[in-house]
Design brief:
Length: 341
């Protein structure tokens, strides 16, 4: 006799929505009230993977309360605050959907665009659909200016595949997610890694809204850190800049030497010449810049050699969550194979 289907077998998840969260208690009710009807209206099996990135407010408590009445909500709690990109990595590592959307909790990126992203990916066979900010008038002038500088720089360093004004609001196919999971990068910047894959892609545009509630999790310091990680992770250009700075300093020093010898021959030298001090300061500054640039790359090598996980999971509410890299069942976290030599 043919075997009867397993009554406990669940329908395959079509869409996963990954949301990194850190101290988002103020915006969570608004997020749930907008996101849940959007996903329900899709009519496909879905899950919401909320990654609590070590919040110290009532975020975890509210997530537990919402989960009582929302079975599709899955909470992945990290043991400590690991950063936005690491929390996003944790969500992508555990998302089960054939398509995965990454979304921030602040509602600046509208969840109402998710159905359009899914239709575009399915209709045109795309692996990536970017959410592109067509209007950023809700951001401050400095934020718009700094974002413009960042994307222009990244397009020059990483290539034209990096879309201007495309952040971390995007849809990925299972093939794209698996490709990202296979990469050995530890300090990940997904807005550069995803275009680098070269998978078929499209985009949807939207108007960026003001943050619904709470405070930004990307102050100036973190924006600078993101820019540094982006540059050093995708280009050796800063090292070449250091080389050119050294060459320029050498040319300037030759000019100063000629000028000094000429002045000496004409008897115009005086004790404590100001140009000597200026030259020393200039050379010292160039050397420090070059050492700092080298330090950034050496630091990345050091981090890779240490092979420490980017996050640790304290709890995953999925009833049958598999033991994955970075979980308590695998405390060593993601491992990067090192070359033998």
């Amino acid at each position: 006799m043919p075997e009867e289907p397993d009554a406990e077998q669940h329908e395959p998840v079509v869409l996963s929505v990954v949301i990194p969260m850190f101290n988002e208690e103020e915006v969570l009710p608004a997020l749930v009230s907008r996101l849940r009807p959007v996903l329900t209206g899709l009519g496909v099996a879905h899950e919401v993977v909320a990654v609590d990135d070590g919040s110290i407010d009532r975020t975890a408590e509210l997530l537990a309360a919402f989960r009582l009445g929302w079975p599709e909500l899955r909470v992945v709690a990290l043991r400590r605050n690991s950063g936005h990109q690491a929390a996003l990595t944790a969500g992508l590592d555990r998302a089960a959907g054939a398509y995965v959307v990454s979304l921030d909790a602040d509602l600046q990126d509208p969840p109402e665009k998710i159905p359009e992203m899914l239709r575009l990916a399915r209709g045109q066979g795309l692996d990536i659909v970017y959410g592109v900010r067509a209007d950023r008038s809700s951001d401050s002038g400095f934020k718009r200016w700094s974002a413009g500088v960042y994307y222009r720089l990244m397009r020059r360093l990483a290539g034209p595949s990096v879309l201007a004004q495309a952040g971390d609001f995007r849809l990925l196919s299972r093939a794209a997610v698996d490709a990202l999971k296979a990469l050995p990068d530890q300090q990940r910047v997904y807005r550069l890694l995803v275009p680098w894959l070269g998978f078929p892609s499209g985009s949807v545009t939207y108007e960026r809204a003001p943050r619904k509630a709470g405070r930004t999790k990307y102050p100036l310091g973190r924006m600078i850190r993101l820019a540094v990680d982006s540059v050093t992770g995708f280009s050796a250009a800063p090292l070449r800049i250091a080389t050119w700075l050294g060459a320029g300093a050498f040319v300037v020093c030759l000019g100063l030497l000629v000028y000094t010898l000429t002045a000496f021959a004409l008897g115009r030298t005086v004790p404590g010449w100001t140009s000597l001090f200026t030259g020393i300061v200039f050379i010292g500054a160039v050397q420090l810049i070059c050492v700092g640039l080298l330090g950034e790359y050496v630091g990345r090598i050091y981090t890779a050699v240490q092979n420490r996980p980017t996050y640790f999971v304290r709890d995953d509410t999925a009833a049958s969550a598999p033991a994955e890299a970075g979980s308590d069942a695998d405390p060593a976290g993601p491992r990067v194979p090192l070359p033998r030599g």
